[in-house]
Design goal:
single chain, mainly beta, 54% strand
Length: 115
Amino acid sequence: QVQLVESGGGLVQPGGSLRLSCAASGVIFGFYTVGWYRQAPGKQRELVAVSSRGGNIDVADSVKGRFTISRDNNNNMVYLQMNNLKPEDTAVYYCNAQRTPYDYWGQGTQVTVSS
């Protein structure tokens, strides 16, 4: 059974930092494209950052220069380092692992940026 479990969310002031972690079980991460998505209240889920199995990285323009995705295939982990957080980054952040036809999601972790 595949499980993705996110951690590291919380409440942070504007300008602060958080590091999200996603631990996977039941999959070999190195075979998957892994990424982070987020969904704010009343909005659609959107891509934040993704890392392909070949090492290509794509980051949303809204977080470019502030967020960094990294992966540890040996330990089935993916991380999202978030710096200079803004109130508009407030959302539930989801970990994702894709390999056609498989598409796995974590349960999400809340990130709230507020003073």
